[in-house]
């Protein structure tokens, strides 16, 4: 049971896709104008991550190698369509707020990244837990960024007013605010010498990004293949 719990906690803390690996920056910056929008995008991505990992892992020995990527994209696109229709039917306010960024989950590099580096080489349950952990980590990051932007820019958190309107700094709910908040949070990470893709001065970590994504995926594949052969 420990290995399943480890996959969940890794995605939240040790391998957080936003704060440590710096993946999925487009939805992170574009949809975090409020806490609720960040939560909506995070949970949508969480659902797709869990079930895409599960399905891709279950079919990993059935899908031919030459059809691997097209097959993964079809699976992810189908799941995103289901999530989009459910949000449109039951949470129309979130659907209107997130707009085009819901279908764009298909091309979120976190989704295909976990499929390529983990789900293809591990069992369905482990892959499901990996997707759950990464999705929770992504949701946590989006809610944190959205909360900071909403609090400073609108004076509220999840719609509840905290700061009087006269003290709001409206730029934080605009596009530049996303970069400012992410930069501030990253600067705090670097100051505390926490693992981060931007912190070259931190204690050397396997999670510090080298900028070579394909090389990273290749290393992950080689490592997982070696594990399979050992088992």
TrEMBL record:
Keywords, in A-Z order: Cell membrane, Electron transport, Membrane, Translocase, Transmembrane, Transmembrane helix, Transport
GO CC terms in record: endomembrane system; plasma membrane
One record GO biological process: electron transport chain
Transmembrane segments: 39-59, 71-91, 97-113, 125-146, 166-188
Top EC class of this enzyme: translocase
Membrane topology label: Multi-pass membrane protein
EC annotation from Swiss-Prot or TrEMBL: 7.-.-.-
Subcellular location: Cell membrane; Endomembrane system
UniProt keyword Transport, yes or no: yes
Principal subcellular localization: membrane
Family: Belongs to the NqrDE/RnfAE family.
Subunit comment: The complex is composed of six subunits: RnfA, RnfB, RnfC, RnfD, RnfE and RnfG.
NCBIfam families noted in UniProt: PRK12405.1, rnfE
Annotated function: Part of a membrane-bound complex that couples electron transfer with translocation of ions across the membrane.
Protein name in the entry: Ion-translocating oxidoreductase complex subunit E
Species of the source: Oribacterium parvum ACB1
Gene, per the UniProt record: rnfE
């Amino acid at each position: 049971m420990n290995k399943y719990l480890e996959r969940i906690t890794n995605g939240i803390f040790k391998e957080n896709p936003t704060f440590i690996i710096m993946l999925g920056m487009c939805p992170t910056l574009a949809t975090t104008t409020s806490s609720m929008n960040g939560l909506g995008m995070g949970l949508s991505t969480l659902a797709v991550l869990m079930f895409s990992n599960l399905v891709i892992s279950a079919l990993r020995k059935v899908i031919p190698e030459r059809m691997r990527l097209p097959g993964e994209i079809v699976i992810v696109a189908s799941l995103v369509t289901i999530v989009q229709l459910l949000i449109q039917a039951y949470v129309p306010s979130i659907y209107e707020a997130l707009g085009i960024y819901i279908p764009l989950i298909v091309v979120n590099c976190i989704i295909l990244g976990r499929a390529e580096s983990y789900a293809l080489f591990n069992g369905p349950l482990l892959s499901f837990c990996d997707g759950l952990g990464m999705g929770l980590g992504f949701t946590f990051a989006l809610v944190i960024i959205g909360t900071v932007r909403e609090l400073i820019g609108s004076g509220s958190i999840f719609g509840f007013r905290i700061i009087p309107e006269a003290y709001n700094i409206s730029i934080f709910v605009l596009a530049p605010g996303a970069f400012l908040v992410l930069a501030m949070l990253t600067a705090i990470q670097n100051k505390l010498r926490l693992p981060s893709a931007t912190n070259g001065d931190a204690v050397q970590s396997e999670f510090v990004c080298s900028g070579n994504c394909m090389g990273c995926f290749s290393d992950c594949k080689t490592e997982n293949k070696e594990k399979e052969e050992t088992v």
